[in-house]
Structures are given as structure tokens and as C-alpha cells.
Amino acid sequence: MDSFARDHLPPRELWPDFLFTRPEYQYPERFNCVSVLLDAWLARGWADKPCLISPRRSLTYGALAALVNRIANVLVDEYGLEPGGRVLLRAANTPMMVACLFAVLKAGGIAVPTMPMLRTRELAYPIRKARIALALCDGRLVDELREAGGEGLRVVAFDTDAPEGLDARLASASDAFTAYDSASDDVCLIGFTSGTTGEPKGTMHFHRDMLAICDGFSRNILRPTAEDRFIGSPPLAFTFGLGGLVLFPLHVGASTVLLERAGPDDLLEAIPTFRPTICFTAPTAYRVMLARRGDADLSSLRCCVSAGEALPRPVYDSWLAAMGFPLLDGIGATEMLHIFISAKVEEIRPGATGKPVPGYEAKVIDAEGNEVPDGTVGRLAVRGPTGCRYLDDPRQRNYVLHGWNITGDSYMRDADGYFWYQARSDDMIISAGYNIAGPEVETALLLHPAVAECAVVGVPDEERGHVVKAFVVLAPGHVGDEPMVKVLQDFVKATIAPYKYPRRIEFRTELPKTASGKLQRFRLRTE
User: pTM for this one?
Assistant: First the structure.
């Protein structure tokens, strides 16, 4: 067995506390998560039930299982994959991407999904950090990957007619494969963070973690059934997407729609066609979808999940008014694998993120790690059945404190136990002694019809220490000039406390974002 991942887990004393007190989190010592998520449905007789749906190719549960087994056989017999071996995956959201990921896990390997938008330099980092020697890649995306990996990386293309590609080898491979007898705490996934705060970190997750998020947020908050059909925008390499578009639907025997392009316009076109019932995307996408929906038939939707960024109250209110049901907010982290604070639809308190998902605990702490009284802003600390284990990274000491995961978010808890997002901890701006949450200013700006997108950061100022600066992308038909600066400043003053208004405004045509669409405010700060 390749022991690299286990050898490079953080020291045990730096792990967070893990909670497995609830019955749904009781897992056997040995199991392979693919056996639970896929093979179990065949044993139930659901081989012909729709599973993965896409414009180019759709697979039933039986067809997916057969494809996974063929790929697993090729990985082991032809490419020499050993249990514990890392396999990089590079593709858009396609059925073949899912099949390759499950094949790696079923063979006992460790999947390292990457986003198709990453460039050569960005790909080189996880290859080097995780010491990857084998990659499965969409045939349209191999050039940059080969350049990033050099001679030490074997790149095998799929969804291609090339004779040396994976598809050619699958024709003669057996569709029977016995899942590797994994331990529940064997590493099966290394998810790299999106880089919103700098160099990405490799987060290591076990087979039990893949089920824990299904038995946590999905079972207790989302509550899907086998009749649901999922759709969404997040890449499968982003753990928000992996959970919401693959693990959650397959955990209950549902189906999922996979789109290679899943911007707001693409979703508006796909939803009437494929009739999904559950959607996962970011707040910005919901805002754009409302503005552009026209006569698009979105009536099949019954539940929509918003995460990846804080959900502004104006977006929540507009969606509820237009659709008749609320957006389900939630906060998750790559380190925690998925959402750990949210609220059932009937328990939503507008503006609040929610309460800890059953099985998780959360509190608000000060700089020294002491819990603060309700109504006080501080750092969010959380623990539960999942938690942070960085791949050979000194930043583990920063993320885990006294057994709690410190997410880097500033929150306030009210007397009823609801958690209210304030800002990323590094997005809190102290100006002339006032604490100003950047996202609150962003929410105020977004209420103005001239603002399409915005990001707010603190910038140095000799007199005040820092002042609020807004980077604004205007909606079509509006001009970014001095009169517009004053219009927006006055609008914010009239919307929230005047001292929070942006003293500086810079107009941009676009804002820096990660490949998963999250704002990179740190880039704006460092400019």
C-alpha cells in the first residue's frame, strides 16, 4: 500500500475533536464509500434507474456501476494503481468525471479533483504537493496538464477516440470489480482549497467523511428523496459541488444533472429542459437568474441551496418574492468537506445562516479562544464528524485550536442559537475605532439597481487607520463617474449606519475570482 497520505497527515495532537454521538454517524471500521453510494442500489434492483444526466451522455445506476468497474480494472491492471495512490482528475462536470472519481475510490486510491479552469502553474502545485504520478483527464484539457506535470506525470485522456486513451482500454476491461476493503479512516480524497486567502491547502478526507456529510446536512437539512433530481453550478472539484451534485443524490438513489457550462444563463436554459427539483449555486448566480429569467419555467424547483459566499438579504428577499419558497443558506468549508451550519426550510430566520447541522457544535470565540456572550461578534469555531486535516501544512496549527476548527469567519450568535454571518475574519475593517463588516457594505450596495457586483475591503489611511473601499461592477447602462460615486455613497449612508459608507469607490469591468467563482478580496487588498 502507498502510505504517503497517511504518513503526511498532521500529528494527532493537531487534529480537531471528532463527534460521532448521533446514530447516523456510526460507521463500521471497514467499508468503501462507493459500495454504499453506488453498488447498494444495484442490490436493491435499481440498475435501470436514472443516475447521471447530461446533454451529451446519461447513465443509469447500472451503467455507471459497470463503467466504474471497467475503469477500476484498467487503473489496477494497466496503470498499476495501488491502494493509497493519488490520481489527479481534470474535467468539467461530466458523467465520465464522476465515473473516474468513483473508480479511483473503489480501487482504494485517493482522488485529487481539479477544476478545468486551472492553468499550468495552478496545476503544478497539487501535482507536486500530493506527489501525483497518474492523472485522468478530459481529452480536450490534456495539454496544460502534461506541461504542468512534466515527465513524472502519466496523463491518460478520456472521452477521446485516441488509441492510447482510456476509452480504448475500457472496451476489453471486465465490468466486475470487488471494492477495495478500505478502513473507514483511509484517506480517499484530497481537496485543495480555492485560494481565496493565498496558496491552496490540501485537505484530506476519509471514506467515512464522504458519508458523514450525506448523513449530516443532506439527511437532516436538505432531506432529498429518490424522486429528486439535482442540478447546479459548482465544479465537482469544489467540495460544495461534489457533495451537492454527486454524493447527496447518490446517497438516496436520486438523479443529478451535470452541465459542463453552468452559469446563470445555462441554468435558466437547463432547468426547463431537465426539470430538476433541487439546485445548488452561489448567491450571485441566483441574483442574475432572477434578473434574466424572463418566461423561463422554473416551476420544477422545490429547494435551492446557496453557499460558497454569504447570502445577501436582498437576494434572499427577491428570490422568495419571485419563487414562493426561500433560498436555503449554509456555510461550509473545504476543510469540513461541506455545510455545517444551516436551517431547515421551516426554521429559516431571514438574514441568519442558521444553526449547527445536527451532529455539529459551534460557538463564537475571542482572539484567545474564549467563548463570548451571545450578541457579541467573534471568530467562528466548529466541530463535528468532519474536520480539518491538512496535507503536510504548518497552517494546521492556525485552523485547529483546542480541538475546534477555526474557520476564519466572523459571526454573532443570538439568544435563540442562530448564527449571523458578519464577515470573513480578514474582511472586518477597523476604521477610526469602528468595526465595519465588509459584506454588510456589499449588501447595501447591491440594493442599488446600478450595482451588478461589488467587493469591499479595508485600505490603509493615515487619519483613520483604514477606510472602506468598494470595487464596483456597474450594470449595463450606468457610467462609473464622480456623480455615480456620490450616488452610491449617499445610498449606502441612507441604508446602513453612515460611518460604514465606502469613502473610496473604484469601478471595474470585473472582479478577481477563484475558479469556483468566489471573490478573491485578498487580491484587491494587496493591490
Answer: 0.84
